[in-house]
Fold this protein.
Amino acid sequence: MKMIYGIKDRPTAGKLIVFAFQQMIAIMAATLLVPMLVSTVDLHLDPAAALFGAGIGTLVYIFCTKGRSPVFLGSSFTFIGAMSAAVAQNYGYWGLIIGVGFAGLVYVIIAIVIKFVGIDWLNKLLPAVIIGPVVAVIGLSLSGTATQWMMYNAANTENYNLISILCGLVAFFAIVLTSVKGGKMLKLIPFIVGIGAGYLLALIFTLIGKAAGVAYLQILDFTPFIETFGEINLQSFLDYPKFTFLMGIETAGEYAPIDGAMIGNLALLFAPIGVVELAQHIAHHKNLGNIIEQDLIEDPGLTRTLLGDGIGSIVGAVFGACANTAYGESVGCVAITKNASVITLFTAALGCMILSFFSPFVAVINSIPKCVMGGACVALYGFIAVSGLQMLKEVDLGDNKNLYVVSAILVCGIGGFALNFGTNSSGNAIISVTAIAAALIVGLITNLIVNIGKNKDGGEDELSADVAAVTDALNAEDETENQEKSEE
């Protein structure tokens, strides 16, 4: 896919701000949602702090990759189970920081191993027949969130609303029309146009609903504005995010003490998820590389991207509690707008950090109806799924070996097949392997099974051929040694 702006391109200042703002909008809903889902009555995570954490984590990633990979890091949903378990066990703010630290450390260790061993083994382990459907599953597994937000204008399924659906579809269709029919500049900002159109329609319906006293029409929630401007003071305009490390200092002694048992349990909760996230990390980077027609696994290299993701998560968690991950929403935004400029991502990261201090901006973002974001996510998640399927264009699906591998990954991933081990005091699994990671594991095993032994036509497959080649080489070496001894 030919990019309008490549990795090293620098849009003019005015365009750069607009493009960066669009990236910010694309990633904000999910980034702000994670801390909301984890927060409880006893422990509150500030969404503004998570936004700051995502921004600073992205800057760390860009630094580690030397500005050669257009990736934005946002709050990871994969860690919600582990974070909720840590909160339930009264580990407090420091427990979240330490836990994410273990996950980030896993990335760093794997990056060091790859540095010395290389990635040839990884390319053989994760060919297109595996990575393609995994990327597709990442997009399709998120599709339920997009449609649920559109139908119910919330993360729950209690109040089905046709007006909510209308607002979501208007946002989606505005994105489509802008991307396909818009002028050169408009094609670069379809999400600003789409979300703006959906927001405006939701505002109109809400005002009519309030005037007529009809709750069904009230799509937009003014609570963020009421909380921000209910009592006008300095904090209504400027307020520092409630950083995790500051909250940890302020609440010292209120939660379980940091001891060996706590650290060991946090390692068991978070480290395995770090291994699981490796699959998504590779899938996102292979997918993005396919979109921008540059192999990011080779340049800047998996070592650098893993270091950036791992260290970025640790730094992000210190400020915002959440583990970070390469965001599919950002990848989709790059694909749709054809803008892979790293300076755009850099500016978006700075923007997230700066605007997290501006209360009105945070209020506006928090007020965007879920149905409108759902409409935008139909486009974003759809592009992720399609780009994964595009990786399969060179794969022969007429060959049962490939067909079974792809089928296993798609069905397990979309079907929500997960692996849970143990149960903690809150009733949740101690270790949970998400559907995407579980699908990858099943796909890897299937690929191994169908490629061991001989092919149907009696010939050796690649794996058997490699083993045979090694065996022949060893036999030849033995024969040479025996011959030399005979001559002596």
